[in-house]
Design goal:
Elements lengths: L2 H11 L8 H5 L8 H21 L6 H10 L4 H4 L9 H18 L6 H8 L3 H23 L6 H5 L10 H14 L6
Helix pairs in contact: 3-4, 3-8, 4-8, 7-8, 8-10
Length: 187
């Protein structure tokens, strides 16, 4: 790692701090969390899931989880946030190719394999981050609704928003988020 590579990487990722999560804007929530806010939240949720899993004796590479969480939306520094309702299967395929290329252009070589790992969600660490991504979003829905900043019913109705990637603690957290909101968990 050279000083220039470190500085350039931070500059390339800096737009994440200014770009809003489009899904919130589309639902009239202003101001709303930025992509960087979301990535921070995913990192926190991921770290807490790691703590919970380790407490049950599970061996987890916490540094890898942190790197996956911090970089999971890095390509959005260039593409912006494309909300789920706008994504078609065809767009998803093309977007996946573009994001893989952008990931390589935005992050140091030592981070490149993280994108594939996250997309495949085959490792425990990647599954933790994928579950944390959904869990952070649903916790944010709970927060926005408790602040009376919007009615976000459609989030509670989409089963994809509750994908736990076979992480028991994430499943339990989704159940509690639903209980706190008064909404049933969709099947």
């Amino acid at each position: 790692m050279t000083p220039d590579l470190l500085i350039d990487t931070c500059i390339k990722l800096d737009p994440l701090s200014e770009l809003p999560r489009t899904g919130w804007l589309l639902r009239g929530i202003r101001p709303c969390e930025s992509l960087a806010d979301h990535s921070f939240g995913v990192a926190v949720v991921s770290a807490l899931l790691v703590d919970g899993l380790r407490a049950t004796g599970e061996a987890v590479d916490g540094e890898r989880v942190l790197r996956l969480a911090l970089s999971h939306d890095a390509p959005e520094a260039r593409t912006g946030d494309i909300p789920m309702p706008s994504k078609t299967p065809e767009l998803d395929v093309e977007l996946s190719k573009l994001e893989a290329s952008l990931f390589r252009s935005l992050l140091p070589t030592s981070w490149h394999q993280l994108h594939t790992e996250l997309e495949r969600a085959e490792t425990l660490e990647a599954r933790i981050v994928r579950a944390a991504d959904k869990l952070q979003m649903m916790i944010k829905v709970l927060v926005y609704e408790s602040q009376h900043r919007g009615r976000l019913e459609e989030f509670w109705q989409n089963p994809k928003n509750f994908r736990d990637y076979d992480i028991q603690l994430a499943r339990a957290c989704f159940d509690r988020v639903c209980e706190r909101s008064g909404n049933p968990k969709p099947r």
